[in-house]
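Lay summary. Proteins are chains of building blocks that fold into shapes, and those shapes determine what they do. In this project we predict the shape from the chain. Here is one chain we studied, written as its sequence of building blocks.
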Amino acid sequence: MKTSSKAKPKTGSVIEDRRAEGLNQSEFWKRFGVTQSGGSRYEAGRAIPKPTRLLMWLRKTGRISDRDLADAMRAISK
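And here is the predicted shape, written in a compact code that computers can read:
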């Protein structure tokens, strides 16, 4: 029996992280500067841009906090 050569989306853990934190899609993605519709596309399997993946990794590993992300978003919005 042949197996599919399609790679699984890299976002599986993102969905698990979001649900484990009790955040809705909009709340989760907003911290990374991504709209709800963009997050939905990523969760459906579209590739997440490298800068967003980098922020997500830094957040997940505890190197930056939600407050750091919020401060950065405010700083670049001015």
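What the prediction tells us: The two ends are 57 Å apart (CA to CA).
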